[in-house]
Specification:
The chain has 362 residues and is an alpha+beta fold. Among the domains are: 161 residues; 85 residues, Alpha-Beta Plaits. The strands form two sheets. The chain has a five-stranded antiparallel β-sheet with strand order 4-3-2-1-5. It is elongated, with a radius of gyration of 36 Å.
Length: 362
């Protein structure tokens, strides 16, 4: 009976103590977060409570295993399971800590920087670093787990390390596409060619960069669809980045009108419309005739906006206001379809008819 109760008491008491210790650490972090609300690090570290408790519990059970009265040497399976739980919990805890540090750094940088482009660039770099660290830690944890569960592979691992050069070449050739995307992602993160939050036009689709991973980049299109593309695409093909160099953008509205259109009055009406719009930033505007055909003229109205959201709403509103004004005040300025009957070409007589007409009459 003692062989059953003693292990249960030791293991149960160990788990209870570690849970209580984790709860005390969480309360301490909560108190620090309330005393220093300007520093989000303490609040972010509270998310590490569960992996921290797993680390403490697995380590405590591993340390008290001998006190429980169980023959430790003949129970290799339990020892390996505890080691795997400890490794997995440590990796989980390290990822959570890295995420807390990254979020705190981003919040501090955003609070001291007024340029949103720099904030987006810093956020992109932090996100890429987090993904690289998480991938490396997960790979190391998987290798340790394999070596713990299969001790026979240790000798194989040593021989693989001895021939790491040849294996590296083979792995590089086999994973060429994955490695190209990885290096392309790092180049984008630290080269600042495209950042999270940038407005881009890719493959004829206009949207906002929503996520950048080690292999793929996700663009949220204006109709809430997601366009997922390999990161290497942005290093090998041209694309439009409307946010690079500043969020300001110039929008244009094209109108096809009749030749009798009062262009000067239309230009004045455009200025009146822009003065009433909050999405016009007041930097520039103009209205010019850009083309002429036998039936219509092409009028281009250009105006500036502070960002791409205002760009879309401004050009739609200006187009609607100008067309409504023309319909109400100058309906003759709208393009018309000619409905006059076509002129029939004169009939040309054939050569035989011309010869009979030239013969003298007897």
């Amino acid at each position: 009976m003692e062989q059953v109760i003693r292990p249960l008491l030791v293991v149960g008491l160990t788990i209870v103590v570690t849970l209580a210790l984790g709860w005390l650490i969480d309360r301490a972090l909560h108190a620090a977060d309330r005393r220093h609300p300007e520093t989000p690090l303490w609040g972010e570290l509270r998310r590490c409570q569960l992996p921290l408790q797993l680390v403490l519990a697995s380590a405590a059970v591993h340390a008290s295993y001998g006190w429980a009265g169980i023959d430790y040497g003949n129970d290799r399976l339990i020892r390996n399971i505890l080691a795997l739980i400890s490794v997995a919990a440590l990796v989980w805890l390290a990822i959570r800590i890295a995420s807390a540090i990254a979020e705190t750094s981003l919040a501090r940088f955003a609070a001291t920087t007024s340029d949103p482009a720099r904030v987006r660039r810093f956020r992109t770099q932090l996100t890429m670093l987090q993904r690289v660290i998480s991938s490396v830690l997960a790979t190391i944890a998987a290798a340790i787990a394999i070596l713990l569960m299969f001790p026979g592979l240790r000798a194989l691992g040593a021989s693989m390390l001895a021939s790491a050069g040849v294996i590296g070449i083979v792995a590089g050739v086999a994973a060429q596409s994955m490695l190209s995307n990885l290096f392309a992602g790092l180049q984008i993160a630290f080269g600042s060619s495209v950042k999270i939050g940038d407005t881009v036009v890719v493959e004829g689709e206009w949207g906002t960069v929503e996520e950048i991973s080690l292999a793929f980049l996700t663009v949220r299109i204006w109709d809430d669809r997601r366009l997922t593309m390999p990161v290497s695409y942005f290093n090998s093909k041209p694309y439009e980045n409307w946010s690079r160099g500043g969020p300001q953008i110039t929008c244009t509205v094209y109108l096809h009108l009749d030749h009798a259109t009062p262009v000067q009055r239309l230009r004045e009406k455009l200025h009146e419309v822009l003065l009433e719009r909050d999405d016009w930033d007041g930097r520039r505007w103009n209205l010019v005739v850009t083309d002429s055909t036998p039936t219509t003229i092409e009028v281009r109205a250009a105006m500036s906006a502070k960002n791409t959201d205002d760009w879309w709403t401004l050009q739609c509103a200006v187009r609607e206001e100008l067309l409504t004004w023309l319909q109400r005040e100058h309906p003759y300025a709208l393009p018309r379809v000619a409905t006059a009957p076509a002129v029939v070409a004169p009939r040309v007589p054939s050569q035989a008819q011309q010869g009979r007409a030239e013969q003298p009459q007897s």
